[in-house]
What we know:
Layout: H1 3-15, E1 22-28, H2 29-38, E2 48-55, H3 57-60, H4 63-73, E3 78-82, H5 84-87, H6 96-101, E4 106-108, H7 112-121, E5 126-133, H8 138-150, E6 156-162, H9 165-175, E7 181-184, H10 186-192, H11 198-204, E8 208-210, H12 215-231, E9 236-238, H13 250-259, E10 260-267, E11 271-280, H14 305-308, H15 333-336, H16 341-353
Parallel strand pairs: 1-2, 1-7, 3-4, 3-5, 5-6, 7-8, 8-9
Antiparallel strand pairs: 10-11
Amino acid sequence: MSMENKLDKIIRFIKNYDGPPIRLMEVCGTHTRQISHFGIQSLLPPNISLISGPGCPVCVTPAGFIDRAAELSMRPGCTALSFGDMMRVPGRETSLLQAKAAGGSVMLIYSPSDVLTYAKKEPGRLFYVAAVGFETTLPSYALLVRKLADENIKNVRLFTAVKALVPALERLCRNSPQINGFIGPGHVSAVIGCGGYEPLCEKYGIPLAVAGFGYEHLIAAVADLIRQAGRGTSEVHNLYPNAVSRQGNIDALELIGKFFVREPSVWRGLGEIEASGYSLAHGYADFDAGIDLGQDEAEPDGCLCGEVITGRARPAECCHFGKTCTPEHPLGPCMASEEGACGIYRESWYGNQG
Length: 354
């Protein structure tokens, strides 16, 4: 059977589903973007719905982290370094871009190697790296710390909000019984391995299909989860074997284990979750900013970002959506981030209206 015929068969299977309602969560923000780009929602019958999950690292970062990073940029002799997606995300009081406009020292980085360049150029200045992400980005941060230690560079600190994804999925499984399946993230799974989800799926009876980012990957994952829901199985299926293995990237995991340890972490929309964050290991604590965020506070009045990234609300259900919250003036990270569901949904909605 040709690939085209296989895809047609999968699409017919999805469109013809007439069983009980199924809610599938695409965990990854890039999956959300690709699902919108390919118009996969239009293939689904009314009894199948896709909801967004906590797979956008910028979106799950608590607002207090933004405020503290902005505060660090205002200290004499200090500079906050951040990747671009974080610059426009609002905290409770400000954003890094607003802090820069107000006179703070904020600089954009494109890779951890940029940190070394800045630190060597100005050895008398203290650079704080706003480190966010999941296990995907941890190896690059580990390599940065190793380079800092090897070259005895002492004017860099990591201000970390890096997350471990599986504990967040477990919190969702406990609190959101309406989730019937997960489309597992491709990038994170390439690092941690698809085997890392097996205890979770077995415990809560929810299937997971790891997917790549192409059209055929995503519809195959949707079809796989529909089949599993119909059979009552809760298995982990790896539909991205060219990039993902069961055991994960051993070298990357060893690197993470050497430089980082797990700790409790606060997630937007989910609160504090045990062992869901990463901080620098004891031997490298000199490179840690050592700033405790504590518990995050409430979202801006009426903002539903916390509900959107946990599948409890859709972007258009927010009273601010497309009105007082737009990509140009975002109230929350889901509208500001390239992987945020609100920005993606608005982009798709606006295009359809045009």
